[in-house]
Structures are given as C-alpha cells and as structure tokens.
Design brief:
GO molecular function, one term: metal ion binding
Enzyme class: lyase
Strand content: 25-35%
Pfam families: RraA-like
Number of domains: 1
Keywords: Magnesium, Metal-binding
CATH architecture: 3-Layer(bba) Sandwich
CATH superfamily: Ribonuclease E inhibitor RraA/RraA-like
Number of strands: 10
Bound molecules: oxaloacetate ion, magnesium ion
EC number: 4.1.1.112, 4.1.3.17
Largest sheet: 8 strands, mixed
CATH topology: Glucose Oxidase, domain 1
CATH class: Alpha Beta
Number of helices: 7
Radius of gyration: 20 Å
Distance between the termini: 70 Å
Structural class: alpha/beta
Helix content: 25-40%
C-alpha cells in the first residue's frame, strides 16, 4: 500500500449475488426504515437521471481531492461488473468529478453506477444514456487528473460511512447504504416491511385501515383534544 492520501487497494470481498439481487425492487425508504432511518445519505445526493431509476451494487469506494478524478479512473479499471463507485469528494461542488465519457467507459466495464458526494457534469447526456448517477450537484467546471486520492478505503458519502463491499441502493428518493455485515438481515426485514406497507395500501383501498393507533398514541402522550374552537 502506498502513502496515506494515495492508497490504492485493488480488491475487496463482495456479498453473494443472490443477496444483491434480493434488493432489486426494494425502495430506499423501506431499507432506510429498517435501519433505524440512519443509513441513508444526505438528501442533497440525488439522482441526475430521469425518474424511475433503481440501482443496487457493491460499493467500490474512492476518496478524491475535491478537484481531482485520477483515482476515479483507477477505480473504474479495478471495478468488477455490478460494482457502484462511491466517491467522497468532500461534498465540494466546485469541480465535476466525472461526466459522460467516464459513464460510457463505466458502462462498458459493467459498472452499475456512480454516487458522488460532490459534482458531476454532462447531465443531459448521462440522463439520456440512462446510466445511474447520484450527485450533490452539477457544474461545467472540470476536474484535474493528478491526485491525491484513495481507492477502497473507508469513506464518508452524504454523511454516511461507506466501506468497500457495502451494498448501495439508489433510486428516486436517494441513496441507502447497507453495511455488508448486516446485508442479509436488512434484506429479510425490508421484505417484511415491504409486505406490511402493501397490506396497508390494500386496506386503505378497501376502506379498512384501522386508525385507532392515532388517538391511542395521543392519549398515551397525555394530549387533550378540544371538541370545538
Ligand atoms: O473530463 C472529465 O474528467 C469528466 C468528463 O467531463 C467526462 O467524463 O466526460
Ligand atoms: Mg465530459
């Protein structure tokens, strides 16, 4: 391993593909709710694509200097199909860390998407490609390619720690991070919550949603309700 600030780790342990497949179709709010509403990125990191995007993959992490994408290029060459490259650019949006050319190359390598705590550019072309990109902002100002930066070390992205191999799920609502040690349990809990939410919607449609819990909660808090103003 090189010097701190320039470390590159070539590979990491990925979660079994059946677990990753299991998250396909599960929306980020459900996943976030079963993790105590804690492991979702800041709302500023959002899809630059047209509505309807949903992507799941293993995090390949990059920490860049906020103006530089050399290590993102290195990461693209190390990635395996299905990886999502998650980039900590310190939340700075003065320089785009990637654009359409990099998305074309990433797609050619089977990379599933990018998440950037920073800015990107070429928004329309990327959106037209349908390649999943989540970022804090968009700017025409380009990046340098000199370093420093690190690949596959623990990073912070959207105020959430991300380790190489964690599962990333991104959709129209934002990005959730599932720590790899919890991936199977969170999937099981997500499927249970998903079914419960579907049942609630069915009950609403049938006019049968039991609303007693609202008044029970207010009563338990000792809140008095007046009959009229
Ligand atoms: O110039 C860059 O490094 C980023 C960019 O716009 C592209 O990938 O198209
Ligand atoms: Mg470009």
């Amino acid at each position: 391993m090189g010097n701190i600030g320039y470390r590159v780790i070539n590979d990491f342990q990925r979660i079994e593909s059946n677990v990753i497949e299991g998250y396909k179709g599960i929306a980020t709010p459900v996943i976030g709710d079963v993790m105590g509403k804690m492991w979702v990125m800041n709302h500023l990191i959002k899809s630059i694509n047209s509505p309807g995007i949903h992507v799941v993959g293993s995090a390949l992490t990059v920490r860049t200097h906020p103006s530089d994408n050399l290590m993102v290029h290195k990461a693209m060459d190390l990635a395996k199909p299905g990886d999502i490259i998650v980039i900590d650019a310190s939340g700075d949006t003065q320089h785009a860390i990637l654009g359409e050319i990099m998305c074309h190359y990433a797609r050619s390598r089977g990379i599933a998407g990018f998440v950037v705590d920073g800015a990107v550019r070429d928004r329309l072309s990327i959106s037209n490609m349908g390649f999943p990109v989540f970022s804090k902002g968009v700017t025409p100002r380009g990046p340098y390619k000199e370093g420093p930066g690190e690949v596959n070390t623990v990073i912070s992205c959207g105020n959430v720690p991300v380790s190489p191999g964690d599962i990333i799920v991104g959709d129209d609502d934002g990005v959730a991070v599932i720590p790899k040690a919890d991936a199977e349990l969170v999937l099981t809990k997500s499927n249970i919550l998903l079914r419960q939410e579907e049942e609630i919607v069915q009950k609403i449609d049938q006019g049968q949603w039991d609303r007693r819990w609202v008044d029970q909660t207010l009563e338990a808090k000792g809140i008095e309700i007046k009959q009229k103003v």
